[in-house]
Amino acid sequence: MTGTERELPVLSLTGTGTRRTRPPRHFADLAPDDRKAAVTELGLPGFRADQIARQYFARLEADPASMTDLSAADREKSAQLFPHLFEPASVVECDGGATRKTLWRAADGALVESVLMGYQDRATVCISSQAGCGMACPFCATGQGGLQRNMSTAEIVEQVRSAAAAARDGALGDGVPARLSNVVFMGMGEPLANYRRVVDAVHRICDAPPAGLGISQRSVTVSSVGLVPAIHRLADEGLQVTLAVSLHTPDDELRDTLVPVNTRWPVREVFEAARHYADVTGRRVSIEYALIRDVNDQPWRAELLAKLASQHLGRLVHVNLIPLNPTPGSKWDASPAPVQAEFVRRVRNGGVACTVRDTRGREIAAACGQLAATGG
Ligand code: SAH
């Protein structure tokens, strides 16, 4: 359960051509304790580490040329700490600008997407932890192309920093808070298959400035297909992030096909790991359930879901239904409204909190399960 050896086998569930390009080291990869050494290595005085951290994490400035409290010579030297990671290849918007999807092209050509969403009371960014995904869930567009590679910590943090800068600069329009408040690891990839980099990124995202961006841990959600050993390990990190588990059905027979990793870690083990997470953190676990017409939307499944959820998690659980979003080539679609309403009713009747996600960005292929980094 410790060490990285657990992460590797699940990475190659699909695809054999995993590229192992490693993005160059970036300031956002560095833990606070390593920053001083990194700047002194470049011949800068140690105190510059703190100034650069303030620029990056508090002022959201990622271009050393604009860090005007550094001398010109030191700005030039510190450029080595800010190698080119990726550039926005496209930005598409909908909901009158309140939903913005960015396609990032990394230095090695890897493509990932992130989605910034503005609401009356919050601004949320949905970020990617891997280019592609190896989990092969058949209803998810990301899963169809297999895994390209893990995102580095800095590539993950950069998605958040640039979203925070965009929100601050008014990109989401009027009536949306200018401060990025929430981060969800619900973009491309399986965050717990890129465990160490994701946990390090959570620290950069949540540590108080200038150590990090200062977003509350409770406002960060890590979503997983249910990599059981990694969930246990996350429980013991001492974090307060929300865990979401993509369950999609309460029975192993169907789940083996909807979430193929279920053949390794079945429903019961997923619930036990979620229980461990809830016990250690006191946090309510979110169960994600994409409702697919005539596939997983039967009343008996709602009842079994409620039974298992309350058995294992008591009140520390919340079921989040996601009306299935269309993906290219998929025959499946969302359940009709009355079926969905009945499903909600039965889960609630079973004593489990249940809501339907207000899914955003469907028309720009930015909604749950639609991120394929094809520029659409
Ligand atoms: N790999 C992680 C993170 C992705 S989160 C995980 O699976 O949890 C994206 C969420 O959207 C997951 O719950 C995923 O199962 C769900 N999803 C995937 N395809 C979908 C689709 N077509 N419609 C609705 N939700 C979908």
From TrEMBL:
Co-factor binding comment: Binds 1 [4Fe-4S] cluster. The cluster is coordinated with 3 cysteines and an exchangeable S-adenosyl-L-methionine.
Alphabetized InterPro entries for the sequence: Aldolase_TIM, Methyltransferase_A, RNA_MTrfase_RlmN, rRNA_lsu_MTrfase_RlmN/Cfr, rSAM, rSAM_sf
Main location: cytoplasm
Gene3D superfamilies in the cross-refs: 1.10.150.530, Aldolase class I (3.20.20.70)
PROSITE patterns, per the entry: RADICAL_SAM (PS51918)
Region listing for Disordered, in residue ranges: 1-23
Protein name: Probable dual-specificity RNA methyltransferase RlmN
Provenance organism: Actinomycetospora corticicola
